[in-house]
Model the fold of this input.
Amino acid sequence: MREYFYQTFPSQLARLEFLRPNNTVRENIMRDSAVVFFGGPNWDSVRADLAPIPDDDRSKFILSLFMIVITDQALHTYNRDSYDAWRAQTNYPKFGSSGFGPHNENPFKILWAPEREQIVDVDQVLAIVPQFVRFLIDETQSFFGQHIPDVDVVAYFDAIRRDTGYAFNQGMVVPAVKEQLEALTMP
Done:
């Protein structure tokens, strides 16, 4: 997972279709001139977005995409003082859309939409979920420790579990990821 995330994922992430919010949203609301969105409501564009991603990489791609989006959204929501440092280091795209303002989608829909549309091998995704969740936790600890040490990793994962968006539980992949996350992050 580590090799894929750092070697392959960045170039595949660049293949998504990104939409820039209007100037008012970028400059006055989000205060981020580089911000772009992908996905739209419920990730209705999942078929088109994943079309350029090779079938053999889709499982790792959606898990990696989930990882960057949930981290971005959780830091913005629960560790706002550390968010700018994260954003300066990563500049990842936002999952959702923008009209009169930004509309972030639930990160768990990244795991569910490809399953919903049957464009990912669910058994293949489920097989790598334990490896992925361990990678997610390890990389979170490493990144936070190096770049944003004021963020307590245990409190960060607790905040994710307490968030109302955590109730989203569609399909087979979302519950599997949550089960592993809870097993590895709860005392």
About this structure: The chain is about 60% helix and 5% strand.
